[in-house]
C-alpha cells in the first residue's frame, strides 16, 4: 500500500505517516496529479501493473484521466438505498464536450451460482 498525497499536505501528517511506517508519494500541488503519480510509481518503484480496490472517487478519477486499462466488477445482489451511499465510479460531472465518456469493451462475463464457480 502506498498513500498518495500532495505538496500542500501538512508536515504533521507526513510525520504521522512516517511514525506508522506508511509509505507515501507526493505529486501535485492542491490535488493528486494521477498521471504524474503513476509515472513516479513506474520509474521510482519499477511497477508495471497496479491493482486498486479503491472506492468510487479514485476509480472515477482514474477513468476520467483515461488511466484504467481493465475494470473487474463483482456484483452482489443486495439493495441498500440512500442518497449518500458511494457509487461505483464517483467523479466530478463531465464538462461537455471537453470530457467525453470512456468507451468500455466487455471482455468476459462469469456467473457464480450459490457462491460456486
Which terms would index this structure?
117 residues; 2 strands; mainly alpha; two-stranded parallel sheet
Describe the structure.
It is a single chain. By secondary structure, the chain is mainly alpha-helical. The chain has a domain at 3-50. The protein contains three helices and two strands, in the order E-H-E-H-H. It has helices spanning 11-19, 34-45, 56-64; strands at 3-5, 24-26. The relative contact order is 0.11.
The mean pLDDT is: 80
Number of strand segments = 2
Task: Categorize the overall geometry.
Answer: globular
For the terminal residues, how far apart are their CA atoms?
Answer: 30 Å
What is the quaternary state of this protein? single chain
Strand content: 5-15%
Helix content: 25-40%
> How large is the radius of gyration?
17 Å
How many helices does DSSP assign? Answer: 3
SSE-based structural type: mainly alpha
Largest sheet: 2 strands, parallel
Give the uncertain stretches in residue-range form. none
Secondary-structure element sequence? EHEHH
Strand arrangement, major sheet = 1-2
